[in-house]
Amino acid sequence: MDSGRPGLDAARAVLERYWGYPAFRPHQLKVIGPALAGRSVLAVLPTGAGKSLCFQVPALLGDGLTLVVSPLISLMQDQVRALARRGVPAAYLNRTLSREDRAAVLAAVRGGGVRLLYGAPERLPGLVRWLARAGVRVGLLAVDEAHCIVEWGHEFRPVYRRLGEIRYRLGDPVTVALTGSATPAARREILEVLRLPDAIEVVASFDRPNLRFEIIRVADDRERFARLRRAVRDADGSVIAYAPTRRLAERITRALLRMGTRAAPYHAGLPLDLRRRVLLAFLRDRERVIVATTAFGMGIDKPDVRRVLHWGPARTLEGYYQEAGRAGRDGSPAVCTLLWHPDDWRTTTGVHAAMRAFVERRRCRRRVLLQHFGERLAGPCAGCDVCGGGSQ
User: According to CATH, what is the number of the domain 5-203?
Assistant: First the structure.
């Protein structure tokens, strides 16, 4: 990839041709410029900042294949479909493909007909071997939702801890790792795992002034159900409600349906085709409320979510902010409400100390969140249940 002004001019032309935008956002330029110049980048940009374009545009300008590591099947399928609608040659490899479809994708990759190839991390070791045999060079490696290296890589999906080795076997390509939230310690761990000691770090502000944060202690689950139903009823638009278990997600959904609300559950226990239909119904406003377990929402482009509800604490503060940050991506006011009871610390395993302190201590919610990510709140809080103000 060429560095300098011509690269950025070409990138702007690609942006306008395929996406119809006249200019990049400032933080996108801070990622795309170095990537075009051959530098690896770790980008920590808030929800709605346009992270995907930071690797999709360079993919159309560089030599070789762009390989995208994506953690969720629904996420990679959504992105590939969106790219196909814009005329961008992209494909994915995951367990939903038949043997014939997989062979067709690999043939297109071998023939140079695919510029972006999405794959789950578990498929990478075998894919790397196939790429080497087929003589396909990877010019750019994109690690989407890179916080999964820290959150999932130790036990749940250990292949994330091998991404540095996989990079080496791919020939040490330029790498763009992206996430919506990561503490300074998490950023160091991501770069260590990926073996990117000289990568450029682009970190935007974590503050989302349009979001109001509120934490409500409830006396029992009866009150928690009542408050959740009231919050859904009062929300002016789409809602995501996060539940800690599949069973509870189903139970909450039934309660919302009984009050006449268009709602649907979303969790890994549902068939893949049903999850896909539920997601599309939510994106197209045929379902008003999604009641989901934690995996839902990663990379989902639904800008007008007006409320995010949590039935109890998330396991980590990073996870909570990822989920809460799916509200208000359009910049309009939105509310993030967490309903909790002291018994949650017993029933929710592995809750980190920072999450517990965030819930129990009555300090400015926004200030605590920003401090956790290594940032100081420069002015007054834009809205939380401790400070007041913000969206109601």
Answer: 3.40.50.300
